[in-house]
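Example for tutorial group B:
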């Protein structure tokens, strides 16, 4: 007999089998437990795949991230281009092995524009993520980057970046790279790139553009990137040609 795996069909078939068993019509091939009044049910859902079964070493758990207050509420209204993502409020959490923390907090920041128009470089990693005036750094026009020296090599599990979240804007050509080379000449790995036309010259990116929000842009990693430096590029936004950072968090643990 073909068994439909749908729960409802399963239930009906189970009831039918029970009734048939009672009338002596069983075909004798039913496994133990069927045909004597029990109703076959689907096996319980399996827990998330343990990475240890996939060649990994440890189980993953939710990383606790503090999000700043929302300054503007709701879905950006002007979104004629549906390819621009709105960060969902019910976004699934970042997961990482136990002991993974924000290894960028308080670390040294450098930038292509080392004399910001507003604010100081240290604000990129000072832990203040609020969207209000005084909590963001403004860099000059056009393509610019900021770089964080994590101080040593870390196994990376995620990045959360807040450029500016007090207006509904989209930054252009968001590219994020990690490296063991402070000059980003060798050993460079790109972990996010939405520069679809390669105007920044870092390669064609296929990642989506997105509206800034207090939830920040979360880049999920799997621990395979080992790096000491992270560099984040932008090239202005839909609001103006300057570049902004409220905070960048890098979630990692000591490299093996
Ligand atoms: Ca900050
Ligand atoms: Ca571009």
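The residue assignment follows.
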């Amino acid at each position: 007999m073909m068994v439909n795996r749908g729960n409802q069909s399963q239930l009906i078939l189970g009831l039918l089998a029970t009734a048939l068993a009672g009338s002596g019509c069983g075909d004798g091939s039913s496994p133990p437990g069927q045909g004597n009044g029990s109703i076959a049910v689907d096996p319980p859902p399996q827990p998330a795949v343990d990475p240890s079964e996939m060649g990994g070493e440890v189980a993953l758990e939710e990383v606790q991230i503090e999000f700043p207050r929302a300054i503007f509420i709701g879905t950006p209204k002007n979104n004629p281009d549906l390819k621009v993502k709105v960060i969902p409020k019910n976004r699934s959490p970042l997961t990482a092995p136990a002991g993974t923390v924000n290894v960028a907090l308080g670390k040294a920041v450098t930038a292509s524009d080392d004399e910001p128009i507003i604010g100081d470089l240290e604000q990129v990693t000072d832990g203040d993520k609020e969207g209000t005036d005084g909590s963001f750094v403004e860099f000059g026009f056009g393509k610019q980057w900021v770089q964080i020296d994590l101080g040593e090599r870390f196994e990376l599990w995620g990045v959360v970046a807040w450029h500016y979240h007090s207006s509904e804007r989209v930054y252009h050509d968001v590219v994020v790279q990690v490296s063991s080379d402070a000059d980003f000449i060798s050993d460079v790995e790109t972990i996010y790139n939405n520069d679809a036309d390669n105007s920044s010259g870092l390669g064609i990116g296929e990642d989506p553009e997105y509206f800034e929000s207090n939830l920040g842009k979360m880049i999920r990693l799997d621990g395979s990137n080992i790096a000491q430096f992270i560099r984040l590029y932008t090239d202005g936004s839909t609001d103006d040609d300057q570049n902004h950072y409220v905070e960048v968090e890098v979630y990692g643990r000591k490299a093996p």
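The pocket of calcium ion (ligand 2) is lined by residues 172-173, 195, 197, 199 (CB under 6 Å). Compare this with the pattern of hydrophobic and polar residues in the output above.
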